[in-house]
Design brief:
alpha/beta, 5-stranded mixed sheet, 8 helices, 42% helix
Length: 205
């Protein structure tokens, strides 16, 4: 193969982002996406700046049109053991390593790079700047939100479908009333404080 032929092969770059660093419960979810230049997706932007309906619509298009996409997570136990930053990096690593074909480079939202076997470029605000990172942001957000909706069906007293696990006043009031279920991050300060008071609620009791 000649050098000219090599240069004609597109360099596969994946965008990587996570969702769920701030909530008090549930896994942190990461996604990695390699977009197809031949099948562009209009409207990609930071998932936080999109309505829930727009995120769901775009998530379907991303799955249909991307060259490759993958979603992975780090569990509550891993978050508590590693801390949320390192658990987020682990989820990102799992997402990138699940891509087929494998990327030649990863562009990651933020200023921290997960340990990958390919070159990594970090971009602060990348979910608003690079379409592939925007796509990863949308997939991660929609998957994690659905996890919270499913938990809400089983444990409606916490209001997870509304606040998605973030420490709102209503959420904090609910966990003070009902205690801490086993899907809560026990290393997070509000949860840790309640546990110190002996407010452990057995989720399957």
């Amino acid at each position: 193969m000649t050098g000219a032929e090599d240069s004609a092969i597109p360099r596969l770059i994946c965008g990587v982002d996570e969702a769920g660093r701030g909530p008090l419960c549930g896994p942190v979810v990461a996604a990695a996406v390699i977009l197809d230049p031949a099948r562009p997706i209009a409207g990609l932007k930071d998932s936080k700046k999109l309505s829930a309906a727009a995120r769901e619509r775009l998530a379907v298009l991303i799955r249909e049109r991307a060259l490759a996409w993958a979603v992975a997570e780090a569990s509550v136990a891993e978050i508590d053991r590693l801390n949320i930053l390192h658990a987020s990096m682990l989820a990102m690593k799992r997402a990138v390593e699940a891509l087929t074909p494998a990327p030649a480079e990863a562009w990651v939202d933020g200023n921290c790079a997960p340990p990958l076997n390919v070159p990594v470029r970090t971009l602060v605000g990348g979910d608003a700047l690079e379409p592939a990172i925007s796509a990863a942001s949308i997939l991660a957000k929609t998957v994690r939100d659905e996890m919270m909706v499913e938990l809400d069906r089983r444990y409606p007293q916490f209001g997870l479908a509304r606040h998605k696990g973030y420490p709102t006043a209503a959420h904090l009031a609910a966990i003070r009333t009902y205690g801490i279920a086993d899907f809560y991050r026990k290393s997070f300060a509000p949860v840790r404080a309640l546990l110190a008071q002996g407010s452990l609620w057995e989720a399957h009791r």
